[in-house]
Amino acid sequence: MRQGVRLEQALAAARGDPRRQQRRHHGSVRLRQLARGAPPGAHDVVSPSTDAVHGWQGRRQSSLGYMTGRCYTDVDAALPVAFTHVFNRRWLAARSVRNATASLCRFRSVARATIAPLPWTDGDMRRGALEKLAILRAVVGFLDQGSGNEGALRRLYPRVPELSGSPLNMSLALHETELNVSKGFLRLHGPTSQEVGFPPVVNASYVPVYHVVVIPAAILYPRCYGACYPSTFNLASLGHDVWHEITHAFHPDEALFSRDGLRRDWWTPASSKKFSRQLACVRRMYNETLCTGAVRYGAHALPENRAVSGGLLKAYREYLESVALQHSGAALQETTFTGEQCFAGSCFKWCSNDDEGPICYSLPGEWCIEPLMNMSDFAQAFHCSLRSAMN
Q1: Looking at the record, which segments are called Disordered (predicted)?
Q2: Cα–Cα distances in Å, from 172 out to 76, 134, 160, 175, 200?
Q3: Which domain holds residue 33?
């Protein structure tokens, strides 16, 4: 982490060519350490013919390249936000992060307004949900520059020890920490299939034990998001992802953790019973669709399906409120589509012919088809005939 902060400081203070500054710093600080740990014959893994072609110098460079790649892989797997934070400061447009952060603030306001009138919640349940929303943290693109980089990393990875010494020692310290966290979790709660660590994935994620929503930088690039895209498209695309993860944060099975990582059941029995009836509707909707074939995704992928459907509906509610606040019509000046059509069109990022995948997820093509076929506004916007597949 300290090296990442120093690298970022070097980039911020760079004058002239920032790429040269990055190479100079990274080479002087990290590669010398990695070279000492390069095992004999490591270059053979990269290129068996390097020695014959380039001699000793080529073998040395290949060893450095191999160890650098291993270092990147290990750090990315264990500390993905810390790793990507440094490089996104260089490549990710600051405007995209500002827009996404502002959108997340609006989503929080909408969430507070929607919790109170939910018919399946009682007073105690609503108070618990509002408290949980108030302490929900988010990482958007990269960590907040104003909060202090190293301090922000420490708050995000509170269990990670001080890392120093050789790359091998740092790697062993990380693995030991991960094992201790997992063992402590199992002692308290028994066996579980739930992820305990930080998932190193491109997609947005909700991390229960930290109670934090992560919107990685990869989502703030096309085809999910783009400064040149219509504002309605960006609101819909980013909103669907953000609301999906916020919905996970309020699931009765997945979201029973406080900010300190301790499990606490804040659902009341009455609300839980009413919510189960809501989930039964989602399960039936996905099981009866024409797209799933023999796999009953409504039963096996219920948490994800609920987050997909609920997330899209909440994003659409946010879109309607933004249109009302702007006092503008539905037509977009940037495109030939109406606002409602452009909103639904943001789902093209999920277009896929893939018919296989983990059973805990529905097929990508269903992530928008299922919710949209149950939205009357969609059928009206695209003039779907009565009793057609999407109406």
Answers
A1: 36-56
A2: 15, 36, 12, 5, 19
A3: 2-78
